[in-house]
Amino acid sequence: MSDIFRRIQYLLNRRRLDEELAGDMEFHREMAERGGRRNFGDTLRLREDAREAWGWMWIDRLGQDLRYAVRVLRNAPGFTLAAVLMLALGIGVNVAAFGFFNLIVLKPLPVRDPDTLLRFKRSAPERYAYALPYQEMAFVRSHTKTLSAVLALNTARLTMEGKEGPASVHFVTTNFFSELGAAPKFGRLLDEARDEAPDAPLVAVLSHGFWRGQFGSDPAVVGRTIRLNGRLLSIVGVAAEEFSGLSMDKPDLWAPLVQQPQIVTGSHLLTDLKEGAGVRTWGRMQPGVTPQGVEQELRYIIADFRQQHPAEIWEKESLASQPGGYAKSLMIGDRSGTGTEQPDKLYPLAVLIGSLVFLILAAACSNLGGLLLARGVSREREISIRTAIGAGTGRLIRQLFTESVVLGLLGSAAGLALGCLVLKLMMVWTGAPDWLDPTPDWPVTAFATGIGFVSAILFGLAPAIQVARQRHRSTFSKQLLIGAQVAASCVLLIVAGLLIRALDHALSASPGFEYEKAIAVMPGLGSHGYTPEQSRAYVDALKDRMRELPGVASVSATATPPLAGSNVMVVGVTIDGRHLDVHWNRVDPGFLETMKIPIRAGRTLTSSDTAGILISESLARKSWPNENPLGKHFLSGEDPTGAQVPYTVIGITRDARMDALEDPDSVDAYMLPGKDDLTKMAVVVRMSGSLESIVPAVSSIARSIDPRVHPRVQTLKGAFQQKMEGIERGTAAAAVLGASALLLACLGIVGLVAYAVSRKMKEIGIRMALGARPGHILSLVLMQFSRPVAAGLIVGVGGAAALSDLLRRQLFGISPLDPVAYVAATALFIATVVLAALIPARRALRVNPTTALRCD
Amino acid sequence: MPKKEMPAGALVLLILRVLHSGPVHGYAIAQKIYMLSAEVLHVEEGSLYPALQKILLKGWATSEWGLSETNRKVRFYSLTPAGRQQLETELADYSRVAEAIQSVLKTA
């Protein structure tokens, strides 16, 4: 221990102590000379030997190596710039991908103590839901001992006077802001004492963005009133800009959850125990409590609650927890379903992106490795001089590798900047909330630095060993590097090709129903307190009035308007041990006719088919592969009278992807709406004339039926294009990756061919002197690349095929082995690389035989 | 004069022994060993100073400034309590090994 202490002390006073030692030795020498002795060794060497005892020599040597490396790289600015750019590209895409992962999964939300937040979902063996009935949440809140606080959130889109389109309102428990450590920008936030009482006045807290957009950043906004669903609310404060609010969407304002029924007249949110209604719930753990401990306690509490409400609370229900302080937990929203929950759908996508960005890095590294080997030739003289004056192989390898590490770290810095810029642009492009801040934090910086080191090892170590041993002329390692680079680039190009093909297919293919001339009118009756009976009357009135409009071909109603992404009901079924996700759609009898989805077998729904179900062809094939599905029983559910009935298949429809365009098969089922679905109904209209005329007409019709209701109107074409946007972004990203790979491959090939030409000058000269034709010379230069390129292509095609399982989910209606994509990508690659190779190869043809012969 | 290579351990033992009689500078250590060994053991600069650094590192000696006989500022090395301890241990070890070698030489 004290040894280490003395060593450190030495290190701190190294300069002084070294000088003292030198003084001692000089004195020693003087005295010895007086005594008539000579024949001393090299002073510096002797001093170094003496200092060795302290064990700090490696720092000196590292310093020397670094200084030398910097000098060498500065003397070759072209090479250094090219290398850093390649690395910046390779590292940058990795940093962007990791930065995104960090933002969503690793980085805690900007709230107080994110680590002690838990998000809860209802979980039973046969079903799950991410929203809890309000009463269940309240019961947990009043009985828990392991949680110090329970927070809840319910989102709604309400009509606000003076605002175009609905306002996004988040109803939250009054402890929401204080528990999350939020500070107001103006006024105050919600407060338990003032806002929880039954007679408390209606209040709202504005989000920063809404305050800026709707109120022009008016600092005197506090105390003003707004009219929401016809009720007056007074603005008590504005939240700070960085407040995340436990949601991925950007709410316009927050209001107390207990005031929800007063604002949404007739709402039963606080009393309704039915599934579907409910609040997202978080809990704050007491100090020293584990999530397992919380779950254990909640199991007993829920069991007690079930005693009071045996019909609504599920058998064997528990509240499963997951870390609630991370963006990932916010992405789930309000999903619910039956059967076991599908494993995370993001996982294969993450693996796919991870493999693609790593391939870019691999391409950049093998490229750079090739350049370093080629550079070894021009450094032969330097290496042999250094060997001659006594540098060992180990020392040389270390020196050469240090150069690579310096390059790697420069690449890290450039890659970090590039990656974070890309991430930032991505955030702006996708309209992510402001608090998702892509500024690099320490995990991202550490990742960038680490990957710089890893790439230094990948591209630098083998060439350093080869060059130090003067074996860099060996063709094998060079061919290996070319092969690796071709393989990586090839996989990237094929994947990009597949995604582009898939996008093209998706854009040209029909989702299986008429969407180009249709609109969906979503009145959102539930959030205006409509009962099922009132809803039916409203929807019928709306339909009748719409039919009277000129240019309307057909009108119908559905609980899940196609492509709108709202109210999507996914029901998990197990048939013969296979898991199937069925998209469950509650519709009017005329829905299929309005959407132009033909019936393939059986018959369509009539208003008396309370227990009838229509299923799509794909679903029929998956459920009963070799049987006639007509007349079979399929699932069960609530019929229009509210009773549970087993459904009987009465018809098979053509495939139509009502919502999930990315699913390879349409797994849709249609039945009449149950009692509870009526408040969610939307009206779909197919036009024969133009769409533009109808949108304003819809608004005035809706207002004439009930002035409170401002329906959301969406053209299905717009919704379709919106869905396609996500796919387009993914495809654009893949295309950029593919192009980067191609660019890297070209740069590498140009460098290597130029090198090959310069090595073969003499041979080319002789051949030309003997009358060789240009074609021969070209093939002499290029043929040496043919084998590694061919091998790389084979490996690349195989690699792309191996990724096909991951790709399957991202491709829309095309096979992951789509031959067009493979052939096109490979051909593009070969053509580009050959063209790139020809640029330096032309030099070979211009060689003057007499000059060439004089070359060494 | 043929160069006598000294075993590394022995040099440290000799230095510690020289320091035992009081603070000395580096050159004086070499001189003393040379004189006391009847001009047999010649300690080179190249082995003396590394050995001294090791002794400093181990904390067996400390160094401080002093004036040499030629009035030059040089470092004087002096034994620490730990160094004294080490000297005793090494002396004991040495005698045991020397005796053992002697006994083998006499009887074998």
TrEMBL record, chain A:
It holds the Pfam family FtsX. The keyword Transmembrane applies. Residues 80-299, 510-657 form the MacB-like periplasmic core domain. InterPro entries: ABC3_permease_C, ADOP, MacB_PCD, Macrolide_Exporter_MacB. Keywords: Cell membrane, Membrane, Transmembrane, Transmembrane helix. Residues 355-469, 736-849 form the ABC3 transporter permease C-terminal domain. GO terms for cellular component: plasma membrane. It is a multi-pass membrane protein. The chain crosses the membrane at residues 81-106, 346-374, 405-426, 446-468, 480-500, 732-757, 777-800, 820-839. The keyword Transmembrane helix applies. It is found in: Cell membrane. GO terms for molecular function: transmembrane transporter activity. Belongs to the ABC-4 integral membrane protein family. NCBIfam families: ADOP. This is ABC transporter permease. It comes from Paludibaculum fermentans.
TrEMBL record, chain B:
Residues 15-88 form the Transcription regulator PadR N-terminal domain. SUPFAM superfamilies: Winged helix' DNA-binding domain (SSF46785). It comes from the Bacteria. This is PadR family transcriptional regulator.
